[in-house]
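testing teh design pipeline on a random one, pls ignore if ur not involved
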């Protein structure tokens, strides 16, 4: 039974990653770095911020110190992201 539940959780996680939800204004987002450039940016400025601008293929996250990260939708080269709870 546990194996079936684990496969279901893994499948739903993959499905959510491929069909990203576009964030709304003022959603709180956690940025997850994919490479050293992004990792350095999040270490310097923080990785949790508010969505301040949404376009068709981009959205902008402003972190606590005022720095802005532009994230491509549906897949960014530098960051993945999750809605922070």
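output:
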């Amino acid at each position: 039974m546990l194996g079936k539940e684990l496969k279901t959780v893994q499948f739903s996680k993959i499905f959510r990653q491929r069909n990203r939800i576009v964030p709304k204004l003022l959603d709180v987002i956690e940025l997850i770095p994919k490479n050293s450039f992004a990792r350095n940016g999040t270490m310097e400025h923080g990785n949790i911020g508010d969505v301040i601008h949404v376009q068709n293929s981009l959205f902008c996250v402003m972190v606590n110190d005022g720095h802005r990260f532009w994230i491509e939708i549906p897949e960014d080269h530098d960051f993945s992201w999750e809605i922070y709870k």
